[in-house]
Amino acid sequence: MKICVFCSARSDFSESTLQACKDFAVWLVKNNHSMVYGGASVGLMGLLADEVLKLGGQVEGYLPLDLFPKETPHKHIQKLVPVKDLFERKRLMMENSDAFIVLPGGVGTLDEFFEVLTWKSLNCFDKPILVYNVDGFWNSMMIMFRDLRLKNVLSDNLLGCFTVCTRLMELQEGLNAERSTAQLVP
Question: Quick check: pTM over 0.70?
């Protein structure tokens, strides 16, 4: 399975978050998943790609030409695709992935997550979306979702479009559950 991973281009995270990302790389390779991501060698993105490669896993990246100076391209991944812009990057990552997992990140990670979440909520695809809530990183986002739901601006359908996992062992269960219910999406 090709798993698209959304995560930070920064690396100033706690040691436990960095270790959780390394453990996530082990999980990817152990479960024969290849990694699709933003193509950079920096931040959590680079750390994750390095770990997957060290373990013999497959990695492909999509990096916009205008980000090359900011997000140094990873030189060792099996496939690096230079793309025109962020829009093309997201489109190609969505098309070339079987599922999406959101790790800690900032506004770029949120943009990517909200893009796939929107498309899934509109029934444009039925690929699994998982939020890996490492060390409670996404707790405030979950509170925001709950508050928006209470204000009646989010449907239950949208909240059912992704699964939140707090432990590594829940990821495969979440992928399997999402894939088994994917056919139910009209």
Answer: yes
183 inside domain: no
Per residue in 40-49, pLDDT tens? 999 999 999 9
Q: What is the spatial distance between Cα 36 and Cα 92, in angstroms, rounded to a whole number?
A: 10
Closest to 134 (Cα-Cα) out of 163, 160, 165: 165
| Contact status, residue 37 vs residue 7, Cβ threshold 8 Å | yes
Strands (E) in 7-133, as ranges, are 34-37, 59-64, 79-83, 99-102, 129-132
Range of the domain at 13: 2-177
CATH code of the domain containing 161: 3.40.50.450
* 153 located within any domain: yes
* Nearest of 23, 36, 121 to residue 79 by alpha carbon: 36
